[in-house]
């Protein structure tokens, strides 16, 4: 009865030898990537819209597959948060369809040559944006990631191999079937998007060890998954590790703005990587600002943990330990430290932060400029909430993740991060002297 | 009597425990990198020019150190090519000084924000070019690499840890002493450039395993060195692997241009990675072009190895084996294959090439366009010699290597490749809704 069977997906039992199966996926992906390099934008967009139509047409089958996953999850005792991430309802389904339309409407980064410069030798030299090739994406329970990842890889001209969580296997298989039908309808190779049809963990080990067939791995999930994959991968990994984000309120800050930013950065959402985890306050404004902050946070039920100087002003809060300065709480908990000026604030950020997103609140021009130049994080902000560190808020139109790496892509990764630039040289018979 | 002793360099015997020694270098480099983030262009340029003055002032000591290295090399039986790479003469010394002046004259990439865009939320978002941080460079015998690497890392705002070949240890120590004096004179931290003072191989193992202190490793040297380092490194590596470069002469090519390009791409220099190793010729022009090519190559003493169809026209040449298509000869040897059109040519390039540099010679607009879009190499050329794939020829003003990676930097790497871009957000109290 499951969508799994009805879509003729291969099950765990019939992929055969995992190494052979993954090598076959890899070879097919490489061939599809070669074909995708010459696929024009219109065909890619047509495939995206055809996928949306297929999903709409097979909506009940996808929902039935999801219901089967949910039933199995409940039986096996998955926790409520995981079941929630796994569940598709009409709103989430509609959001998936809407996402495909949005990606189709984005400008295609492939083929862009930003400048073609003439050199003394007579050649013209430029850099052309091209797909990376084959992208492997490893993720956990949310089935809508299957579609999101597939659409971004497709639009950027890449082939992809997707490995979702075992909890979502029937949902993913049903979505994959719609993706394949959409690709076929648009005349693109079906291997442009392949969903790994086995939940055997060995498949992940294979996927990250095939440099001949996979150009980059993007793991989406918890820190331990990402660390393990980075450690074991034989291909480059675009990592998204933790966000220990700071807001530093300088003595010249307008305190109303500081209050609004500090509250928003902590409370707008607790579980996101761009949520503030430690608030640093310049000593001269601590006495005025801390009580106002404390009452605002109390309204949101945020637990405060402070340094000695903070506790001298807010005497009812817990003492922050060394561990608190390192903590990514992802919860209604905030560490607060009173510091003496921007140097001390930047030292704290450098020492304890994760170089993800850090903000200063100040009206001092020179300090704003220093903070921007010197804080070594993927996003550095002046007078804005750290919660803005996001591909959509930044105008990328999409986001496959937020890179905490320094090389290649840093910060929110959109379509551009799924491409690379090669040199193109145009001549008229030039030779080197 | 050696410069080694006279400059008070530490010798192999007194660095003590290698792990501790390297950790100390790493910590000092990290601190210097933090300071370098706020160092303005003028101070960096002053340091570069001060280094040039110091080198000029201590020229005889550096030359004496080099003479000591050469003497030791001769004693230990280094081959002539290695001794040549090791040797400094007046011309090479002058070129080093000139290089420092050139790097000082280059525009500083750091701090550049290409565009700052307003978002609906009211924030402005841009990307600022910033140093990578600490760069580890591992290289072989040429002592001028010490200065070249140091100057490019400094200009791009990075700290670096340099590990040269043991053959050049006294030369490198003498050059390092001049670099340090130049940094001191300009008021920059001496740890901005550190030369590893031990030739113990364990130091390399440590250098590539300190992600807390080193942001990226750039190995410069033979393929086996680079492969070993890539395999073992725990930090990202910018790789420069082999160049199996192709020229494809299409049937519509102007044969005089094809001849000039094919001869230049092979013979202008044999030992470089952008030298053509395989020539592909479209069948309709093979009969006319091959004899002309053969006589041109004969003048240069290039040995030809051909496919069956090539040998049907040039019947005296050796048969090319499967191995020849994979070969990076770095020598006066060329593999030639007659193919049927651009599809076959691109298939050959994809299958046997190393994705370094590949060129088409054609007067057909559509084929030129296809070749540019579809050949997945770091440099793709139309009607120009592959030998142009070079940072100076491309106008980068400098070159630390040619990356064969797809991520981060691809092709010739200049100052920009030693930087990364972080997001900067300017607001006026904005919070996320």
From TrEMBL, chains A, B:
Main location class: cytoplasm
EC supergroup of this enzyme: oxidoreductase
UniProt pathway: Amino-acid biosynthesis; L-proline biosynthesis; L-glutamate 5-semialdehyde from L-glutamate: step 2/2
Entry's family note: Belongs to the gamma-glutamyl phosphate reductase family.
Function description: Catalyzes the NADPH-dependent reduction of L-glutamate 5-phosphate into L-glutamate 5-semialdehyde and phosphate. The product spontaneously undergoes cyclization to form 1-pyrroline-5-carboxylate.
Subcellular localization, as worded in the UniProt entry: Cytoplasm
UniProt entry keywords in alphabetical sequence: Amino-acid biosynthesis, Cytoplasm, NADP, Oxidoreductase, Proline biosynthesis
The EC number(s) this enzyme carries: 1.2.1.41
Bilayer-spanning residue ranges: none
Name of the protein: Gamma-glutamyl phosphate reductase
Pfam families: Aldedh
Domain of life: Bacteria
Residue stretches making up the Aldehyde dehydrogenase domain: 27-299
């Amino acid at each position: 009865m499951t969508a799994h069977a009805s879509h003729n997906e291969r099950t765990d039992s019939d992929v055969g030898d995992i190494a052979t199966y993954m090598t076959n996926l890899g070879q097919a992906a490489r061939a599809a990537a070669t074909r995708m390099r010459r696929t024009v934008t219109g065909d890619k967009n047509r495939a995206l819209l055809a996928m949306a139509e297929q999903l709409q047409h097979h909506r009940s089958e996808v929902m039935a597959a999801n219901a089967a996953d949910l039933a199995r999850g409940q039986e096996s005792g998955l926790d409520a948060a995981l079941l929630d991430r796994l569940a598709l309802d009409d709103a989430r389904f509609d959001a998936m369809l809407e996402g495909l339309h949005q990606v189709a409407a984005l400008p295609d980064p492939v083929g862009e040559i930003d400048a073609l410069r003439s050199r003394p030798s007579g050649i013209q030299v430029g850099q052309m944006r091209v797909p990376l090739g084959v992208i492997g994406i490893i993720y956990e329970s949310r089935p809508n990631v299957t579609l999101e990842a597939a659409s971004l890889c497709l639009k950027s001209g890449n082939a992809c191999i997707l490995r979702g969580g075992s909890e979502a296997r029937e949902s993913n298989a049903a979505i994959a079937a719609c993706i394949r039908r959409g690709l076929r309808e648009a005349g693109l190779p079906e291997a442009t998007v392949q969903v790994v049809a086995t939940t055997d963990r060995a498949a992940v080990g294979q996927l990250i060890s095939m440099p001949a067939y996979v150009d980059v791995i993007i793991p989406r999930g918890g820190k331990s998954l990402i660390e393990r994959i980075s450690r074991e991968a034989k291909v480059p990994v675009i990592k998204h590790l933790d966000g220990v984000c700071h807001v530093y309120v300088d003595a010249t800050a307008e305190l109303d703005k500081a209050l609004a930013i500090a509250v928003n950065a902590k409370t707008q959402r607790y579980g996101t990587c761009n949520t503030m985890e430690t608030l640093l306050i310049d000593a001269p404004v601590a006495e005025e600002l801390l009580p106002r902050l404390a009452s605002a946070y109390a309204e949101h039920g945020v637990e405060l943990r402070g340094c000695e100087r903070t506790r001298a002003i807010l005497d009812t809060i817990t003492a922050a330990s060394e561990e608190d300065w390192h903590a990514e709480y992802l919860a209604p908990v905030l560490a607060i430290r009173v510091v003496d000026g921007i140097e001390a604030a930047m030292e704290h950020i450098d020492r304890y932060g994760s170089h993800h997103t850090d903000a200063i609140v100040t009206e001092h021009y020179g300090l704003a400029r220093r903070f921007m130049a010197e804080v070594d994080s993927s996003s550095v902000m002046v007078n804005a909430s750290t919660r803005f560190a996001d591909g959509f808020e930044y105008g990328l139109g999409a986001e496959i993740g937020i890179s905490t790496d320094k090389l290649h892509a840093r910060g929110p990764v959109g379509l551009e991060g799924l491409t690379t630039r090669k040199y193109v040289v145009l001549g008229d018979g030039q030779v080197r002297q």
